[in-house]
Design goal:
The structure is a single chain. The strands form 2 sheets. Strands 1-2-3 form a 3-stranded antiparallel β-sheet, with no helix packed on it. A 3-stranded mixed β-sheet has the order 5-4-6. It is an alpha+beta fold. The longest helix is centred in the middle third of the chain and has 15 residues, at 81-95. It folds into 2 domains: 11-43; 46-148. Helix content is 38%, strand content 18%. The protein has helices at 63-74, 81-95, 104-118, 120-130, 136-148; strands spanning 11-18, 24-31, 37-43, 50-52, 58-60, 102-103. Helix 3 runs antiparallel to helix 4. It has 5 helices and 6 strands. The protein binds zinc ion.
């Protein structure tokens, strides 16, 4: 890094500290020539992730788009702004494990997973608006999961293609 005081290119790192949320690293540097100290920040380059859209075109990853999608899906729900930001942050975080380019459907699936843990109605709304599913059947299954029961559906049903009809959740426990 070029020294802001003398323009020298040689420096050494004297301190290195991660931001609280782990989103960036702050490095304190010292010029090898004039000993001036300066600070650099290192953060994940989101723009370097490319997204392949459904029509085959490629575009740089756009965090704001994801955010507005999530926010729209959460409108009118109890999910607040802070939670929306947290969902987006988790998606971006998980996305960093993927190799660029990433299919837009993969990102949609990540958003959905995170959203579903918070608010199922918002998740289904997101899915319908942004067509995050590659297969419309997945969407129907999602809606079914939602309407099935308010209690203990643990997601991830095996899609064994058993034809029509949802799995019977079993007899209702109305008797005492
Ligand atoms: Zn210097």
């Amino acid at each position: 890094m070029r020294c802001p005081a003398c323009g020298n290119l040689e420096d050494r790192v004297v301190d290195s500290r991660a931001a609280e949320d782990g989103s960036s690293i702050r490095r304190r540097r010292q010029c090898e020539r004039c000993n001036a100290r300066f600070t650099t920040f290192e953060r994940l380059d989101e723009v370097s992730t490319l997204v392949v859209k459904r029509d085959g075109r490629t575009a740089p990853f756009d965090r704001e788009r994801i955010r507005s999608g999530v926010a729209a899906a959460c409108k009118g729900s109890p999910v607040d702004e802070v939670t929306v930001d947290a969902i987006v942050a988790r998606v971006v975080d998980r996305l960093s494990a993927f190799t660029s380019p990433v299919e837009s459907a993969q990102i949609g699936a990540l958003v959905l997973e995170e959203l579903r843990r918070i608010d199922r109605v918002a998740a289904v709304r997101f899915a319908s608006v942004y067509k995050a599913f590659s297969d419309p059947l997945d969407f129907e299954r999602e809606v079914q999961l939602m309407s099935d029961d308010p209690g203990g559906t643990d997601g991830d049903g095996p899609g064994d293609g058993a034809g029509d009809g949802p799995d019977d959740p079993g007899a209702q426990e109305s008797e005492r």
